[in-house]
Specification:
- The chain has 21 helices and 22 strands.
- By secondary structure, the chain is of the alpha/beta class.
- The chain has three domains: 186 residues, Rossmann fold; 170 residues, Rossmann fold (3-Layer(aba) Sandwich), CATH 3.40.50.300; 71 residues, no CATH class.
Amino acid sequence: MTSFHSPNVMSKSLLDAIAGFKCPFDDQRRNLHNRATRMAELLEMRGVSKVFPGVRALDGVDFTVRRGEIHALMGENGAGKSTLIKVLTGAEQRDGGEVRLDGQAIRPRSPKDAQRVGISTVYQEVNLVPNLSVAENLFLGRQPTWFGSIRWGRMNALAREALGRMNLADIDVTRDLGTYSIAIQQMVAIARALDVKVKLLILDEPTSSLDAGEVRALFDVMRRLRDQGLGIVFVTHFLDQVYEVTDRITVLRNGKLVGEAETKSLPRDRLVGMMMGRELASLEQAAQRHAEEAKPADRKVLLSARGLGRRGKIQPFDLDIAAGEVVGIAGLLGSGRTEMARLLFGIDRADSGEMSIDGKRTTLNSPRAAIAQHFGFLPEDRKTQGIIPDLTIRENIILALQASKGFFRAFSKRKQYDIANHYMKALSIAARDADQPIKNLSGGNQQKVIIARWLASNPRLLILDEPTRGIDVGAKADIQKLVLSLCDEGKAVVFISSELEEVVRCGDRVVVMRDRKKIDELTGQIDEHQILQTIARGSA
């Protein structure tokens, strides 16, 4: 059994002893001292606490990061990871404890203060300016000037150098950032964070919008920075990535430190258990029951698409979706998965082909028309397309149901609370009450609220686009079990995920996409290797 232990600090006396060691070879002595210095603690957070009204977000947490290491900060949504980062970067002020960087006590009052002392952060949601050029975004607020005028040529040259270090030398730095994909914008944000005198780099879900090649490129950069002595805090929900690139792991749960361990010595099942406080057996049992249940061969086709497509977005495709089944959609980033979902829900209008619902030819020219057919859609980007951040949990949950009823026939407050409280309990949404603003919830709980919104409308077809992206292991398991239970109740589910394990576990069939085209449809005993081979070859 892996033993978790409290962080300990390499003593100054040990460093001094190594520095003063009389080695007959000076180079060996220097190397030994440099290695010891590199492995000493760069960041020390001791007994850090933070209290919000009704919630103790951090409860005496210890957290250390060494020079020259990549340190994973793990935990379920609501575990305290985001609050710890906000305290460290000055976005929130701690209520207790101490923080030291390079041995010096610090208390940043703002992210700008934190950057001045050498702490730089890249968040999951890119917070740059899309209508400015790539170069302007890289040097926003610190442009090179000459007698008050921006030196555009110099700034563009420096931008190319910064992106070259990220293996993005072919990016046109004079183009508006918003014309590039989210993945490129994320890499630009990371390049900006590195282009200051940074000692500690915090990467908060940096790979959520990157494809496999971009993830490899980022990891190469992270390893180079580690070897140069930089400390890196890596926050992610992708366990494979944690075990691929990190040196140590710290686990938080319910605002408390569970412990830390060397990555190589911590088994995955143990890590998951520590994060969740429970095991994943219930999910596996649900998947097994779902797989073993007899499926009628003549299930009623709910939706049928023939030659449905949209120029410049997705090539024409055929697809049948039956009641009581989960249709998984797999493919690389940009393969056309989201474009297919948007056509099926009427967000985008098809310019070719036709759609039938319940055997009758139908045109879905708006989400309202889809809602009228009792369809639901959970978008890929919950922040901008899913939640209404300034509304409460209750108001967010009843939104779709109210829209289907008509806004001039409002539900009574009592009915609204009954609906909201029912789904908060059913989905284990962690919140103070139904009147809490949704923007104050963790990502996983926000996702559950959006799912509750559609469940309240009793949908026949629920389209879920990346429902588990950026949320913790426990919330992922809850959502996957929900998908399986909806299918068992006779509802149809379209399940889109970048994680092939999820698609295989939940899907009765898997539609494989590549280059904005449906290239195959897999049935029977499906595994991840088969999906990857299909994507690589272009056919089964």
